[in-house]
Specification:
55 residues, mainly beta, Double Stranded RNA Binding Domain, four-stranded antiparallel sheet
């Protein structure tokens, strides 16, 4: 599980990447340094992603 201190200290990379928090909740970090919460879930064997907002 990600803590607030860990999230604040995450550094951007050249390409966007995602860090898993728990049960399908991810934090996406863009090269610009913006951070977004993404919920990944499956419905009828298809993966969907729902953006929950920025950090």
């Amino acid at each position: 599980m990600l803590t607030e201190l860990q999230v604040k200290n995450i550094k951007p990379k050249e390409k966007p990447y995602m860090l898993r928090d728990d049960r399908g909740l991810y934090l996406r970090i863009d090269p610009s340094g913006r951070k977004y919460w993404i919920l990944r879930y499956w419905e009828q064997k298809k993966e969907h992603q729902l953006s929950l907002g920025s950090y």
